[in-house]
Amino acid sequence: MAHAHKIDFPAFAQDVQAPGKPLVYLDSAAMAQMPRAVYDAVRAHEERARANVHRGVYALSETATAAYERARECARSFVNAATAREIIFTRNTTEGINAVASSLGKTLLRSGDHVLVARAEHHSNILPWQMLADEQGIILDVVESDDTGVVSADAAHAAFTPRTRLVALSHVSHVLGSINPIAAIGRLARERGILFLVDAAQSAAHLPIDVEEIGCDFLAFSGHKMGGPTGIGVLYGREELLKEMPPFLRGGGMIRSVSFKESHWADPPSKFEAGTPNISGAIGLAAAMEYVCGVGFAEMRRVDEALTRATFARLDAIPGVKIFGPRDPALRGGVVSFSLDSVHPHDLATILDREGVAIRAGHHCAMPLMERLGVAALARASFWVYNDPTDVEALGQGIEKAIHILRAA
Amino acid sequence: MAKGLRKRFIFCAPHNSQYEIMSDPLYQGTLLEHYHAPRNYGLQDDFDAEARVDNLLCGDSITMRIAFDQARVRAVSFAHAGCVISRASASLLTEYIKGRARGEVRGLSPGVAVALLQAPLTPARIRCALLPLEAILKMV
Prior knowledge:
heterodimer, A: 409 residues, alpha/beta, seven-stranded mixed beta sheet, 13 helices, B: 140 residues, three-stranded antiparallel beta sheet, 19% strand, globular, disordered N terminus
């Protein structure tokens, strides 16, 4: 049963707005709540094993290092990477994509090379490539999604040019909930010798990730969207590439030797982890991954589909609501964006907030997509394991209340 | 008139009952009145200056026109797309500046715009209240 999971999350023990109005959290696509198991793991680490990693020779440091590397192995297993050397801990998805763009921009990508992104991408998977266009003369091509928001393999294929060197695409759209056929696109990219980066920020907590099956060269996701702490994310990169790529940031911990004449880098993944990392974040992320695997992706899908279906039914009953993205809940990740006639998303979100319901309203860091959809802003409800049908009902009632208050008297 | 009627029919009820209060501490009174019946709404042809301000973050857009009589604001009109707060704020601010000297309007502080609304704005929504002020300040 879906709401059996809610008790795992301390955040739901509070009434945020008023007594009798429990937190109805429908913004997991921005940030997921943390299960108690993650708090406990982080706290235990900080209380008993807090020390810097890879640097000390005393017991506490070795314990911390072992825990950090255990977390790395956990992430390796989570995405089925061949080796833990392909797992780099970052701050979040944005940092992972920036690291790849910046590093490739220095070497493997040359002026006049093409990079392909989709119009519907999050700004974090557009701007780093636009940076290369601005600074290095890379040509940024844009592929459109179909009416349901999916970038088909055919569309991607048609958008490849003889000079396309990289394609960067999200797995699940954080606005439309559509699921891109990334394994098929990965195959196409591989055949053409085109590098493939997957933005898995929205999918990592909802769908199983297998980098070998996808055939991608890079994949990035965030810990805070899957019950992990903030400030931690994972960048997967194929080892052969990581060995060739220059570091993104330079500093302590990523070197073999340093002198003022010349410095030499450590091997991946250390090469890409300059400075003291978010150690407790990594430990927390590993605990979150264990939690997710404990729930299981079959259950994740069941929750997503059931709540998406329930949301469609509830919202379809309200005049003036328009839902975006695929109509088949089985073809969606757990995200439902919608508009409401005569009610601005920010006003809707404020009134919902009064009822303890948290949704997101705005451009969702996807202005090119908003422009294509012909809207300035949308409201978005997103689900995770702790949501249940009463949350959907609270959303529906809140929307009706907003209509009552705001539509012309 | 409408405000008085609303007050008469408000009564308390348990949460989630069908008699749930259909009102809101923010969306009521002055704010709602000026949203549903905004003053100076609809661009007039007689104007001396025009300014348009967009908040791309949320999609609010205000176009404002001012007609001056020497150094005073003679008439104001505006067009608007977007949220309740920015429209109500435009309505209140345009009323406020009518007849005032340019110098006085130039010195208008954000606090005045917020105070006119007589509504408890959260920090995230203050930006909405200030959008019409931004348009006005472009023209005086």
